[in-house]
Amino acid sequence: MKKITFERNELYEKVWKKPVSHLTEELGISSHKLYKACEELDIPTPSAGYWAKLRHDKEVNKPGLPESDKESFTLTIREGKQKSKYKEKSTKTISVPKNLYKPHKLVKQARKNLNKKSLNRFNRVRGGRPLDISVGPDNLDRGLRILDTIIKEAEKRGYSVHSFLDNSSHWMYFKMGKDQIFFQLREKGKRRKRKPEEKERSWDYDYEYTPLGKLQLKLFGNKWGHPSRIISDTKSQNLEDRLDEFFFKLESMAENKKQRRIEREEKQRINRLEKEIEEAAKDQFENESARRATLEEQAQTFTKSQFIYDFIAEIERQQAQLDLTREEELKFEAWIIWARNHADRLNPVKQTVNEILN
Asked: What is the pTM of this model?
């Protein structure tokens, strides 16, 4: 027997951060036990379709945590035989038909492009566009049926499936909202180094490749990275019987990728905000510096204009003491008008008053 104690606030955050199917694997308990803990602690849980809406960036409702006298709950679990990692998740719900019936348009295009009689250097069937499939001729029909089932199931779950050409290779990916998960179907093979006498020409390939009959589905978080998840034929199960597990791993990757993207976008948002604040402070400082410089310049020109006004007043005082002819008086008046106009141009007071009022 073992006991697990759940803190109410912590469990509330967990069930709204990850699907219950993911939490059961993380906590090592069944979904029934997890829902029991939520019920005991009066914790609301996501409704059906909540995670699908969230994956596609649709609006969802997360209820608040209601008041409760309970702060924790201890669950007692009987420790029995350890279950396999995937066994407790669900029974088989996805079946691959024995014949390709009404194939998806991507599979239909690929089937037309493939030719069992034409093999590449890896002894796999040539072609396959627009699908990312690389299998031997004996597994071609089987591989197309598996991909057809996966694509149709993905669209049922609200994903869209796409394919594009890049550097002579076709890439397949699931699109969930803003995120993409790449996938491919491959047949395992072995490599043997060829002896010199086996080569007809010196530039022939050094290695010979032989398909082994076992198929693999690979999931990639990024186009050029190593596969993050691989589902294969095993001694006890064919790949066709593991498609529920494939979709569980796909959804787990999608949730993790979305969470990382949200965290990355939030970090970028904060960086942009900090940069905007920094630039605004810099602009404010520069504007303030320019304003002070303008004020100091205006004060200097004002002082200069006052000296000129005082100088004009002294000229007028001296003029009044002289016995001048009418012609000489006109000369003084003309000079005084010219000097006062220049002093007025230098005087910033009127302009500054207008700026303050406006």
From this structure: 0.61
